[in-house]
Amino acid sequence: MAEAKPIAPLEFEKPLADLEKRIEELRKLSGKQKLGAEAEITSLQKKWADARREVYGNLTPWQRIQIVRHPQRPYLLDYLRHGATELFELGGDRAFGEDRALIGGLATLDGQRVVFLGHQKGRDTKENLLRNFGCAHPEGYRKALRLMRLADRFRLPIITFIDTPGAFPGVASEERHVAEAIAVNIREMFNFRVPIIAVVIGEGGSGGALGIGVANRVLILENAYYSVISPEGCASILWKDRAFAPQAAEALRISSKDLLHLGLVDEVIPEPIGGAHRDWKTTISSTMDRIRHHLAELNQLPQSRLIETRHARFRAIGTIQEP
User: Fold this and answer.
1) 65-315: what fold?
2) Helix 61-68 vs helix 231-238: crossing angle, to nearest 10
3) Which pLDDT tens digit goes with each residue over 153-191?
């Protein structure tokens, strides 16, 4: 499984990786030659623990984005395979074709049948080309709408998993009216009579994220982000240079902590130290537990209340309260 492979360190993690390597080498050397280097190993371990707390306790928004883009991070299908049962994927928008970047179907959570939707990225070049790097075409959003209407008809809760830098911006996507497809999804999601929970598990970029993000509850993983534009896109516009992406990430206030403070998300799901890719089991378990918790609460609400609260949470965004 992908989580069992050696973890490739990010740029800001390299000093920690170097310390780990020194400790491991000293252990091997000490074992072979009986050097009695326990004191030095203990000292290095303390230095590593202190450095680890310092690095992960003071992550910048840009460093969190690097973590959330790690190729060994769990993706949608990983959450479903390890946290749900009776998966049955449904394909096609019944108008143009199939989109493998945005997938959906049926799953069971603790005995309750739900409709799931979400972006799926790839782990290698071949899979990324198949999944279009998690950037959905118009047919992906129209497929999502078809499945959400199915859920509404049969009174099945909808769970969406957001992980995309944005909808695909190519010529073919524009020719098939990607903006219209996303706009229709946003409009229709406000009026479905079933509980809707959206979880930002990675990147939450622009309308590509919002096209399946209109929900009664919006959850986000600790290192994930949710933004009208990617930091690189923002830097290209404001500074005419993508190298300013770290400054853009800071200015956009797209981290989970900022989003919770601004009322754009309802809960931040903690990740293991170092990111979700370092402990799939804990990440998936805690995420699915929070989904079940919120779903149990929403299941108690009447249909009219579900629609009313969904409208209210989005109308409250951007309002100003005068003292």
Assistant:
1) 2-enoyl-CoA Hydratase; Chain A, domain 1 (3.90.226)
2) 130
3) 999 999 999 999 999 999 999 999 999 999 999 999 999
